[in-house]
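Exam review. A common question shows you a sequence with its structure tokens and asks you to describe the fold in words. Practice with the pair below. Do the first one on your own.
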Amino acid sequence: MGNGSGVQLARFHLQGQPTESYRSLLYLEHSREGGNQKLASWTGPKGIERYLSKAGNGRLIQSLKSFLANRTFLSTEIFGKRFTVEDLIARILRDLREEAERQFGMPIISAIAGRPVRFVGAETTEDDAFAEGRLRTAFQLAGFERVEFELEPVAAAHYYESTLVRDELILIGDFGGGTSDFSLIRVGPTMLRNGHTKGDILGNAGVGIAGDAFDAKIIRRLVAPFLGAGTEIRSMDKNLPVPAWLYAKLERWHHLSFLKTKDTMNLLKSVKAQAREPEKIEGLLHLVNEDLGYRLHQAVQKTKSELSSAAKSCFRLSDGPIDIDAVTERPSFEEWIASELAEIEACVDALLQACDIRPAGVNRVFLTGGSSFVPAVRRIFEQRFGMERVRTGDEFTSVARGLALKAGNEL
């Protein structure tokens, strides 16, 4: 933000196509050069391209921020070297900072960064503070000398405010991968002219449910059964279920990234040897061993996107022993995510009640983030506030734009 030109977003390239998104993805490869071990990493679009090229025996890691509130996840071993969560996130932030410096032609040593109202897995304010502290450390390791945090729905409100010609009381709904966050804020020309005060933010609320939880239900219903979920193994003349925890980790992107360990691979081989349907366990082994997490993610996103605009979608994933071809319809998907939708509804209603605001008192609802496209999510707000008051726009970049506007206002 600066030089009178408004907000400029850094642009990247993924498989020859421009994008303004930098996926928080990390791909690592292990190699030997001159007898020395070397660990190289790629992040964001370059990480995706390197992963898809299958160059070397690498490790793909997604959704690292989901571990920030987890006090038991201190570090992990990758190719014999131990890393903290902060180390791994810092690699992504460092690459992002250096690419932005190259594009904008200036050093970048400070940032205003978005954060959810409630981090994934945070149950107390202490958990949230712990997660933010770890994220701050990651920024510092990445070369930032100063970082301030702003709640993501508040940042989206700054962006929406820049489009207004009159004052409004708005409800912002920001749907990320791991969290859904909401804020009630007074915005408009008066606040821009006089400056915002703490009283302009009536309240914030968040729930650790969003796009990743919807993805998990697609995996549970369409993918896991083809990979052995619900099948049995023979053990000591007994029939026992295949360990369910394997599929619980399969459903979460941040856990799937860490299934590829020696112990887990040995367990899967043992399960396959005893399985009544070994071909399905072979598919699970292949998915974990070949690091197909991103391929699975893309297939799930395609189905979720198609169900947002069409009545049905065909889920397709084929690689080696894996051959999944399954059709699902929107009503079935909405039934799968009914409990998550209910939690989002309850969070919105609790925020309105805590602020003593009736739905009729809210002038506009601004929804942002990928899951704002899901029709069942939109209906939550259309039923409470009316279709005419619900707005969307720049669903994947409004938070970034709002953070830049906040920074510009503070200069």
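Now try the second one, then compare your answer with the model answer below.
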Amino acid sequence: MAGLDFELRGKLAVVTGGANGIGFAAARLLAAYGADVWIFDLEGANPHDAALQIGAKSCATDVSRRESLDAAFAAGGTPDIVIANAGIVREADFCDHATEDWERIVSVNLTGAFHTVQSAARLMKPRRSGAIVLTASTNSYDGEARLAAYNASKAGLLGLVHTAANELGPYGIRVNAVCPGLIRTRLTERYFSDPEVLRDYFRQIPLGRGGEPDEVAQAMVFLASDLASYVTGATLFVDGGQMASKFGTWSEAAADFREGRWRLR
């Protein structure tokens, strides 16, 4: 049997929020498979420096501003692949959640994704092909405390995925999402540096550990590639089994927590 082929030479790929974390891992992997990659990110995230590391191109872009995003697509050209990954998070108790924080999170995570998908789809439709992957979350499904705006924005992405897949399918454009669990990035490093937090959090994850950005990027590239040519409107969990574990998997009766993960004795 021939090996799986992720050859992406000749493909133009755009990654929003691509200067750090999961977005950068996706951009790096797309480039490694031969795609011509553009990183769209805020100026403060240094997209130019990130792009230089992987032989990509960059454009300072605010996805919450349609004119900024349209200008970026005009500079980059019609994409074959779009990873709509830009997102932010801020924590607050539900009753203390500031309106301005709610509006900013929704404007980036949900409205920004809408702008990204719509701008890309308008360019892709005449060619009758394209692949779009959105970064949703396990929080698209659950109500993790202190994350009301983030949870709502990520839940909204699933409605966007389903609707866009339905309407764009006739044009040969596939739209899917990944739903990462707890992944080690600069935004989550404070959790990964606290063994006691990880002990309890990872108790609920069958694989007993957190994820790495490359593990999410691999799922994104699969969905963006021709290997997923009959997959659209789907969500792929990249969460170590967290959403399959209602009551938790690990206990001290049969396992130890060491070196940042649970392990059977």
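Model answer, second protein: The chain has a mean pLDDT of 95. The beta strands are 12-16, 36-41, 57-60, 81-84, 130-135, 173-180, 235-238, 255-258, 261-264. Full marks require stating both points clearly.
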